[in-house]
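Thought: the user wants the 3D structure for the chain below. I'll pass the sequence to the structure tool as-is, report back what it returns, then summarize two notable features.
Action: structure_tool
Action Input:
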Amino acid sequence: MLNSQTVDRRPVSGFFARAYREILADRAPLPSMPDVALRIRAAMQKPNYNVGTIARVVSADPGICAYLMRISNSSLYGAAVPINDVENAIGRLGVGATRNLVTSHALRAMFKTRSKVLGRLMKDTWARSARLAAVTAVIAGRCPGFDPDKAMLAGLLQDIGVLPLMLTLENYRPPLPEPERIYSSIDAVAGKVGVVLLQKWSFDDEMVEVARSRNDWFRDKQPQADLADLVLIARLHTLIGTQKMHELPRINEVPAFDKLNLAKLDPEASMAFLREAESDVRQVMKILGV
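Observation:
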């Protein structure tokens, strides 16, 4: 891995700035929400939906069925008695968790391209997002009032603006720059692009705010912790010990930290927390295909 002295973080010749302006001006195509996730979200907006309703939607996609069966029979959901049909799997998971898990699973399929070089970047991008999602889910399990499955999806969606920006590289004619230079360039506008994409996909204001708050470490909109605060703290945890650490505030300087009912964690204690939680983090990452 390159050290901090050799990483080139110069912007990629205005390429992503132009892509960002095109997206804001609605002149650039944006990826569509995967069909199965759309259909589940639509079904849950109808009155009197139930487990059977969602099971019928899910049953049209054998891959999603197999995925939900595997998750429902995993140790994460206390699977003492095996489940053999999708309706019972959804019953064990809960309809809300099923929607979040299906959406998370469907997002993974979007991080693909025909380009081998770009494909490697996409794979690495998904792995980074999946780790953020996993750490967010694990922290949510330790904070009253937060749902781990929803938190996992929020962790993925905070980085969703990276996807359309990364896809624009299919039209980049010179040889692709070093990955760290690409990530550094994308990082400046990914949150704003994520807001545009989530609004297009009709996500609620809570999830849109998660994207909007990306890297906004001193965000302090309300006295109670919200989902965006949770994801920000998770992001800080994932960045501790990385090359970016020297650019970040200490975790106990971030307003979101005091709002969450976590033990007082300084950066050293945060590293210890991550080591202790690594097994849980890896289980969630496995759910996300990493």
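Final Answer: Structure generated. The CA atoms of residues 20 and 107 lie 21 Å apart. The chain has two domains: 28-107, 111-290.
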